[in-house]
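From the shared-data thread, chain only:
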Amino acid sequence: MVSGSTPGAGAGASPAAYGQRVLARRLLRPLAFAAGAAGAAALAAGIALAEGALAGLAAPADRHGARVIRFSLASRYVHRTLPEVLVVPPGSNGRGRPLLVFLHGRGDDGEEANLNSAMFAALAAQGPRAPDVVFPDGGEASYWHDRAGGAWAQYVVDEVIPAALARTGADARRVAIGGLSMGGFGALDLARLNPGRFCAVGADSAALWFRGADSAPGAFDDAADFGRHDLIALAADSNPYARTPVWLDVGSEDPFRAADAALARELRARGAAVQLHVWPGGHESAYWQAHWPSYMRFYARALSRCQLSRERW
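Structure, as tokens:
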């Protein structure tokens, strides 16, 4: 169930205060993520300090002419109402455009986390090929898969995408999925479980592990849950993406570099159309913002060449 536009700032929060809170969490989230469980305490302790330091300094993103639509979705799959964000590229009402579903990384306020000037500029640069983009809320640590706490994959496939298509009039035959960190894992997993439904899949600094015991706290329910979504081991058996274009990139100092490269090797060995880019940087927002132009070019090119034989959503 989808309801009308909402500000997404939370009860009693001013837009400025909300922006400071989101920015503080974005800055501190990579530190907490890298530190695992101990990082959660550091994040909680640091948010107040960061918010104070950022008071009055957080400037709104330059949207480069894009239109931002916020709405809420009452999900029957995850049993809560979640905020969603749609971005319609400049010079368009959204109708007939392809759709990019972009999944955020670990942390709350995730649907807002990628609304930065770099993303808007990269979107505008694609001109008439620019897709509509939906940024769903995946909770703090859902890892975008069906699990005991909710059917997060079904929520994306059966609720978010149809809602985005209905609101924008985007082309249901041209849908791509991507994401960063937790969202990169989620995009790869969702495309694996829905073969032939996406025109492309992209994963930036995908959160992947060789062993469940090494995964971040809360990423999986238990060893069996990890095993059902162990993308590296599953790729060693088969290529679930067929010839769908797959993009992987990771920073040279990113702790996920080895696992992401291993996935690329397994997929290439089984005929997948995968490209892997290793660029200088770590697991941080500065790295991702620097590469939004490359991300958007990949999606725009793949979507412009894709025309699935029938509507898939």
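The mean pLDDT is 86.
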